[in-house]
Each structure stands twice: as C-alpha cells, then as structure tokens.
User: Which sequence fits this backbone?
C-alpha cells in the first residue's frame, strides 16, 4: 500500500490524541496533529477526535476558526472520520451542558442516554451494520467495539445511520455519507477490528488520488 | 448488549510486573509490555497497570512502560498508583493511558477528583477504593483505607458507600472497588460490598480483590452486580486463561466479548 499523503488529526483541546496518533502510526502513516486550517484542507484525510464536553469543543473550534473548514470538508466529500465527541458535534445541537449549537452537518440532535442504566455507557458493545460501506470492509456484522459516552446522536435522516447499538435503547453508533464517516465508539481502542476501521478509511483516502 | 469486561491487572514496580498477596511478598511475573500484548491476544477487554512504587525516577520508568504498551496494544489502558496532582494525571494520559485511577490523594483532597474530571473529562477519572469490613457491624459496613500499598493501610474514617456516592458527584466516571479483606485470598470477591456500591452509584463498578476461580468472577458480576471484573494472579500464573474464563461466563449466559 502506498502510504503517501498526510492524515490531519485536529487538535482542538478536546482530550487526549495519543491513542488516535498511535493507531494511525501503527498502520504505517504519519499523522499531523494540527489546528491550522491550511494543514487540514491540504490533508488527504482528516480526523476529528474528541472526548469531553461538547460545548467547550464547539467554543474551541469556533475560536480556532475551524467551523467553516470542517463544514467545507463535508461539502466537498473529503475523507473524514469523527470519533465519539467528533461524531456528536457533526449534528445540529446537543442537550449536553444545558444545550449547545453544533456544526449542523447532519440534521438531528444529540441527547443524553436515558436513566436506568449505568452512565457512561462504557465497554465493548456490538455494532449492527445498517449500510454497506467501505468502512465496514472485512468487519463482521455485530462485531464488538469499545464505547465510552453519555450522549448519543439522533439523526433526522435515517439514511446516514451506518451502524446501530443497543444500550437500553437502540442508538446510532456510526454515521456515513460518502467519505464522511463518524463513530460513537473508539476504533483506536477496539483492538484489531478497530484498526481495520482506520485502515479502511485510509484506503478510501488513497483512492482519491 | 453491553458486555461485561474482564480486566487483568498488572502491579508494576521498577518496570516489572509483580503481584502482592495481601499487598506483600512480591514475586516477579514478567515484563508488563509483553504481558499486555499477551492478554490483549487472549481477549482482555482492558488493562490496568498499578504503579506500586512511589519514587519519581521509577515514575519515569512507568511512563515509558505505558508509552510502549500504548504503541502496541489497542485496548483501553488504565494507570493507577501514586498519582497526586493534575500534572501527574496529564503526564500519564500523554504517555498513552486512557484512564487514571486515583485513590489516596482523592481521599486526602476530594477536589482532586473534580479538578481531574474538569480538566480531562469524567470518562478518564477512575476512583480506586480500598475498603475493609467494619468488624461486627450489623448491618454490614465498610471503611475506606488509604496508603494500602506500603503497609496494612490507614483507616480514612470514611464509609465506603458514602465515599463512592461523593466521588461520583465530584466527577469520577468509574469505581474500582477493592476489598482489603478478600485481596490475595483467592476465596472470592466481597460480593456484598460490590452490590452495595453498585446499587448506590450510577457509574460502572469494577470488582477487585479475591478472584480465585471463574465462578468468583461470575458471582461478582451477578450477585455483586459489577460491570467489570479485575483480576491478577489467576491470570498471571496461567491458572486460568482469559479466554477460558470468558467461555465459562458465556456458558452461564453472561454477555462477554469472545
């Protein structure tokens, strides 16, 4: 596999990027950790990681001038992976922290997991694949992935739901629209199958050239 | 369905894995990075490293161990032991830990939990709790102990259940409940303690201390209502493989990742 081109990991102060960098490095690519719009636009693939609070994350993205940049990546169907909070901020708004406006790339809202079960939803859970998409190449249906989150996205447009997971309710655990993919779970913490998700997306980004 | 997590715990001293029996009499069970890779291949759902040294130079060795592990093993890694400041937490996260477990320092200053959670998120702040049954108490009560690594530990004059509830309010995202009475005995977890904590808090509870057989893990998950089980010596000395334990639990209808 040719391993040229850059993979930009957006550093916007939303948690630890170490494991994402380790996963990409393991696959033979050199990630560029950046908050610079130019780097992001020049990259072959862009990763928006994130743990922590959605409101703070949006404030930081706004301060860094990256909101328009991420929307543009989506409009141009550029290879993109959002992870965890990086999935949630793609929607219109979240009820986390009393409510915050998000990027609005996907219509829909982010809600808190219902009471009655342990929160955060932490551990390995199955992802039911709802679409055929290159991101799932070589990954069995209902494979286990590692989750840790207290909020979940409710897409208005059901066709963007790529995967679903049961935790008291059935929620959207992966979204995909063209080359724009996001997962509620952490592929970089999901063993070999998680690395396969990264490999699939990196292969997709190579196809562009 | 969310699976129950099986978590091998490696006590690390000077870059090597040791396992205490009642926190004493250590024997060497290997290289932490190699063991981490081995357990990952066997199906461990997460890994925990406890740094049982306190000196700063050995803390540097620990960070290097964490770094090498995180470069080669892609499952969640928690690091605990001797973390005193928000900067200590930051250094471990930067080295590649996904979560940190705080214990004595959180008892001495509970705002340590909230400061850590505010800065890094609740998902990476684990409360590690060492608790011991109050002799003769009826109904059952448990007291929190600190400094358990060095000697027999010191009573903290804190009720274990109250402390668990408070820690969650402060921002702990998970609680590892270690029974001092059961630790190292291999005669089973303190199931009553686990159930009491699990019913009192809304965050995941991890059972620790006392695992001797796969049935002990089953009891912690079912009777103790734990979300995950931590064990050390039953895995380290090859008495039971993680895979075998998971097969056992699966046969008893416990959801596990196989």
Assistant:
């Amino acid at each position: 596999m040719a391993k040229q081109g850059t993979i930009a990991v957006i550093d916007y102060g939303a948690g630890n990027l170490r494991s994402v960098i380790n996963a990409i490095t393991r696959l033979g690519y050199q990630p560029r950790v950046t908050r610079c719009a130019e780097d992001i636009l020049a990259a072959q693939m862009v990763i928006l990681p994130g743990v922590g609070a959605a409101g703070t994350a949006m404030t930081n993205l706004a301060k860094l001038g990256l909101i328009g940049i991420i929307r543009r990546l989506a409009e141009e169907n550029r290879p993109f992976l959002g992870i965890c909070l990086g999935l949630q901020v793609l929607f219109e708004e979240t009820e986390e922290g009393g409510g915050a406006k998000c990027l609005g790339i996907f219509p829909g809202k982010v809600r808190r997991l219902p009471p009655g079960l342990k929160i955060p939803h932490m551990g390995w859970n199955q992802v039911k694949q709802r679409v055929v998409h290159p991101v799932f190449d070589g990954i069995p249906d209902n494979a286990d992935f590692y989750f840790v989150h207290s909020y979940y996205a409710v897409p208005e447009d059901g066709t963007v739901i790529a995967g679903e997971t049961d935790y008291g309710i059935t929620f959207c655990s992966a979204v995909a629209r063209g080359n724009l993919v996001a997962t509620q779970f952490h592929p970089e913490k999901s063993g070999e199958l998680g690395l396969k998700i990264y490999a699939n997306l990196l292969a997709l980004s190579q196809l562009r050239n | 369905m969310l699976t129950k997590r099986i978590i091998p715990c490696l006590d690390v001293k000077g870059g090597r894995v040791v396992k205490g029996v009642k926190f004493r009499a250590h024997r060497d069970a290997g290289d932490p990075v190699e063991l981490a890779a081995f357990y990952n291949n066997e199906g461990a759902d997460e890994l925990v490293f406890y740094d049982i040294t306190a000196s700063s130079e050995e803390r540097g060795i620990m960070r290097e161990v964490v770094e090498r592990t995180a470069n080669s093993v892609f499952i969640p890694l928690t690091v605990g032991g001797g973390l005193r400041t928000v900067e200590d937490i930051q250094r471990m996260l930067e080295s590649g830990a996904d979560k940190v477990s705080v214990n004595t320092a959180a008892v001495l200053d509970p705002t340590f939990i909230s400061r850590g959670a505010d800065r890094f998120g609740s998902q990476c702040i684990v409360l590690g709790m060492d608790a011991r049954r109050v002799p003769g108490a009826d109904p059952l009560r448990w007291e929190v102990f600190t400094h358990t690594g060095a000697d027999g530990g010191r009573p903290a004059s804190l009720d274990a259940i109250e402390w668990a509830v408070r820690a969650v309010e402060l921002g702990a995202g998970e609680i590892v409940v270690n029974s001092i009475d059961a630790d190292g005995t291999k005669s089973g977890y303190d199931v009553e303690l686990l159930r009491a904590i699990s019913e009192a808090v809304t965050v995941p509870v991890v059972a620790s201390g006392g695992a001797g057989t796969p049935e002990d893990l089953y009891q912690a998950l079912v009777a103790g209502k734990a979300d995950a089980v931590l064990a050390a010596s039953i895995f380290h000395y090859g008495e039971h493989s993680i895979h075998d334990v998971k097969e056992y639990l699966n046969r008893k209808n416990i959801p596990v990742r196989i």
Observations:
- Residues 56-72 of chain B form the longest helix (17 residues).
- Residues 234 and 240 of chain B are 6 Å apart (CA to CA).
